[in-house]
Amino acid sequence: MTAGELRATVLRVLGEIAPEADPAEIKPDVSFRSRSTWTRWTS
Predict the structure, then answer these.
(1) What tens digit of pLDDT does each residue of 1-43 get?
(2) 3-state secondary structure of 22
(3) 7-32 burial, b for 16+ CB within 10 Å, e for fewer?
(4) Amino acid 13: pLDDT
(5) What DSSP line would sit under 1-43, residue for residue?
(6) CB burial class (10 A; 0-12, 13-18, 19+) of residue 38?
(7) What's the pLDDT at 39?
(8) How many domains would you assign to the chain?
(9) Could you say which of 25, 31, 32, 36 would form a disulfide bridge with 42 (CB–CB 3.0 to 4.6 Å)?
(10) Which H or E run contains 39?
């Protein structure tokens, strides 16, 4: 699986879990693990 395929899969699953989430707002250089809430992922 390429990095692009992995990112697409993660964003798809995130959209299923949290449909209110805006994948366009996720910063690609910020680890999901280092963030605890959706607000922090996008700020």
Answers:
(1) 899 999 899 889 988 998 888 888 888 887 766 655 555 555 5
(2) coil
(3) eeeeeeebeeeeeebeeeebeeeeee
(4) 92
(5) --HHHHHHHHHHHHHHH-TT--GGGS-TTS-STT--SHHHHH-
(6) middle
(7) 53
(8) 1
(9) 25
(10) helix 38-42
Q: Which amino acid is at 23?
A: P
Q: How far apart are CA 4 and CA 40, in angstroms?
A: 23
CA distance 1 to 24: 22
pLDDT the model gives residue 33: 67
pLDDT score recorded for residue 22: 84
Collapsing DSSP to helix, strand or coil, 26 comes out as coil
pTM over 0.90: no
